[in-house]
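Technical note accompanying the year-one report. For the benefit of new consortium partners, we illustrate the data format agreed upon in the data management plan: each record pairs a sequence with a structure-token string. No post-processing was applied to the example shown here.
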Amino acid sequence: MRKTAPYKTDFYIFAGEFKDVYNTKWKKIKQLAFQDMLA
């Protein structure tokens, strides 16, 4: 049983997915806030 390799790859995949989701959410929030300021 390997200890580090699968954990690292799983962690990096999970972190990458989380970063993508966070970035898309943040962009949407910023766009909505910007539109609210203009409105």
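Partners are asked to follow this layout when depositing records. The CA atoms of residues 19 and 29 lie 15 Å apart.
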